[in-house]
């Protein structure tokens, strides 16, 4: 990810919250195979497990990695990316002579995008455009990239795999039902739970998916929301997006204001 200082976000807690609010990640792998494509990507909803301690000021890189968290997900075994992950797992286990090995040697990338992005017309830059004309179009967006080593759980006969997948699908369903749908019970509808489905049906589905787990060792965040522009231009952008009278426009306007205020507060 190209990170200009003006757009970079280094606050780990903020990046973790971004992932929680936008859990549909794009898993990208680059694994050599005689059958499957070298570079593959899949959209996967993730659970982010955070450590009890979140000390991002740890003395060494290994300790800091422990604070970034662990991403858990699952994917269909018929997915070509899952097939190459399973293929690579077998090769790694054979190379190390250890059938219990789960972690693959190559780094993977997971990209999380913000909920809204939008083209920015030069007409919004009401301070610079009339005075110099030195303005060009751009695009506002936000994104977080997570890097780490991936563990694969794919042996349907293994209790370890079954336990991982059960915990994963239960946690993912609970997160989506409560945080996304708002089904929290009480005055709200009751959340759907995995236990509501027949156990035999769930067990059958578990045999057709693999579990993945990534220990994050690097996090990068980018919020490109015109915070590098002067206050007059930012105000023009905010007004311009609000005038679109759309959910996306209002969301971008809010983000531009927030990022601009953060920039002004750092001076």
The biggest beta sheet is recorded as: 9 strands, antiparallel
Q: Kindly state the number of beta strands.
A: 9
List low-pLDDT spans: none
- What integer is the average pLDDT? 94
- State the oligomer: single chain
What is the CATH class of the domain at 8-115 and 140-156 and 207-227? Mainly Beta
Classify the beta-strand content into a percent band: 25-35%
Within CATH, the superfamily of the domain at 8-115 and 140-156 and 207-227 carries the name Electron Transport, Fmn-binding Protein, Chain A
Secondary-structure element order, as H and E? EHEEEHEHEEHEHHEHH
CATH topology name of the domain at 8-115 and 140-156 and 207-227, in short, is Pnp Oxidase, Chain A
What integer value in Å does the Rg equal? Answer: 22 Å
The CATH architecture of the domain at 8-115 and 140-156 and 207-227 can be named as Roll
Work out the helix count. Answer: 8
**Percent range for helical residues?**
25-40%
Structural class: alpha+beta
Overall outline:
globular
Terminal-residue CA separation: 26 Å
């Amino acid at each position: 990810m190209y990170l200009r200082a003006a757009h970079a976000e280094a606050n780990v807690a903020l990046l973790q919250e971004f992932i929680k609010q936008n859990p549909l990640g794009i898993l990208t792998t680059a694994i050599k195979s005689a059958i499957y494509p070298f570079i593959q990507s899949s959209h996967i909803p993730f659970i982010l497990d955070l450590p009890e301690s979140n000390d991002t000021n740890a003395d060494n890189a290994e300790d800091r990695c422990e604070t970034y968290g662990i991403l858990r997900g699952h994917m269909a075994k018929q997915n070509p990316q899952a097939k190459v992950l399973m293929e690579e797992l077998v090769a790694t286990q054979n190379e190390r002579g250890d059938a219990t090995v789960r972690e693959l040697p190559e780094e993977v990338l997971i990209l999380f995008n913000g909920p809204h992005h939008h083209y920015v017309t030069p007409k919004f830059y009401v301070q610079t455009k009339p005075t110099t004309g030195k303005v060009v179009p751009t695009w506002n967006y936000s994104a977080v990239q997570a890097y780490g080593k991936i563990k694969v759980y794919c042996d349907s006969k293994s209790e370890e795999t079954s336990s991982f997948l059960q915990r994963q699908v239960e946690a993912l369903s609970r997160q989506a039902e409560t945080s996304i749908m708002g089904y929290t019970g009480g005055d709200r509808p009751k959340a759907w739970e995995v236990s509501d489905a027949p156990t035999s049906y769930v067990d059958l589905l578990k045999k057709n998916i693999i579990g993945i787990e990534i220990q994050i060792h690097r996090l990068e965040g980018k919020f490109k929301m015109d915070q590098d522009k002067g206050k007059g231009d930012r105000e023009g952008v905010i007004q311009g997006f609000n005038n679109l009278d759309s959910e996306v426009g209002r969301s971008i306007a809010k983000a531009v204001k927030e990022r601009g205020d953060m920039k002004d507060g750092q001076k």
